[in-house]
Amino acid sequence: MVERESRDEEIGLRRTRLDGAPKHDSFLNKDGLLLRSYGWLVKNAIGIIILLHGIKCHARLNYLRPNVEIISDDNIIVKDENNYYVYEDSWVQYFNQHGYSVFGLDLQGHGLSDGFENLRYNVKEFDDFSYDLLQYISKIQDSFNGCNEDDGGGTLPFLDNSLGERKPLPIY
Predict the structure, then answer these.
(1) Which segments cross the bilayer (predicted)?
(2) Which of 24, 81, 121, 158 is 20 to 30 A from 15, alpha carbon to alpha carbon?
(3) Rounded Cα gap, residues 47 and 164, in angstroms
């Protein structure tokens, strides 16, 4: 994980918690931007799901349940200022309950990730989103293959089929 304490304090990362006990991580992309990621892992997973959010959004907002009470289309009440996103009844919990380890990435300029020229929702080239995603998938695979011993990497999980053959877990 890349350390940037001053940035963490600026965005309030230490003051809030993320429900569902995810593994927090981060990495520097090819342009030196710090990208934040999350992993909700299950034992004996049957597959790996990588969540990708859209523009002007982030992984937590898209795939965890917002911890708010909706009053009207333009009025909400936040139930807990220190826990904006809830694991319970979320997409992440659903996938975990069905045996999938789930990984999510805040794309550059979104969520807690740095943005190009330090601007929100800004990207130098649209293809950079693809490069970041490919780098993240590679990072996930490396962590399972023991290439990143600092993060407690292990062997890439295998799925045994009915013929006794072992195949790497599918990634979706």
Answers:
(1) 37-55
(2) 121
(3) 17
Say how many residues make up the chain.
Answer: 172
Q: Which spans in the chain are helix H?
A: 5-11, 59-63, 91-97, 127-144
The DSSP H or E segment spanning 24 is strand 23-28
- Which two tokens mark 60? 């937590």
Q: Which residues contact 170 (CB under 8 A, 6 or more apart)?
A: 47, 48, 159
Q: Mean pLDDT check: name the lowest of 16-20, 23-27, 152-156.
A: 152-156
Per-residue confidence at 132, pLDDT binned at 50, 70, 90? very high
Taking CA 35 as the corner, what is the angle to CA 48 and CA 16, rounded to the nearest 5 degrees? 90
pTM over 0.85: no
| pLDDT value of residue 12 | 47
Phi and psi at 11, nearest 5°, equal -95, 0
31, 153 Cβ separation under 8 angstroms: no
